[in-house]
Amino acid sequence: MAKGFFDNKWILLSVILAIVSITLFIMLFPSLTASPQKAANMAIEYINKNILEAEGMEATLESIEDEKIKTLYRIKISIDGQSFDSFVTADGKYLFANEPIDMSEEITPEPLPEMLEKESVEIEGGFMEITDLDLCLENDKPIVYFFGSEGCPHCVWQKPIMAEVAAQFGDNISYRENFDGATDIDVLLKYGNGAVPTIIVGCKYYRVGSGEAKGEDADKEILKNVICKATGGNPSSVCN
User: Which of 27, 50, 157, 158 is exposed most, by the fewest CB atoms within 10 A?
Assistant: First the structure.
């Protein structure tokens, strides 16, 4: 899935793992207390626990090299298929990015978006149902949100399918489409970090990502079934 202008996880990773100027290292930590393998393992463990766990990713160690400056080890880290060069002090205490990261300190994770804190179950086609939540209505009709971006090929694929299915329900739903706009962004951010495409049906059902893996016809059926849950089976000509 794409994150468009809403978010870009690689900005975070690039800041964390960027190589800082070697001259900065010369001034720091002359003592050697850990082997290269131990120091590198400490860095990998710290990255996975404190930085990547919330992203659902994992770093692995590709290689270790002694630096000419003997207070440091250069390590190559693989994250989600991309390689990053970084440095860890030989005592296994500091990982270097744009500034030192003290690996003896825990990073307090950001709180989950509001709706992700609630109990939910998967129903079909990647859609989640928030079990203890009433439908959100507008003029007694469930609100159906579709968020996307022109720069996201998955969103472009989903857009006509979503519009076609929504049109079948006519006045039985209140359909709101947001492509590269700011309308209802507060709603989107309750269900994640801004990733698109995101579909929210009656606030109770939602999916982050497209239905491409299922195929066009199957995804239309999935969307129809989920919206029918929100409308109580109306219209009967669609929800048969």
Answer: 27
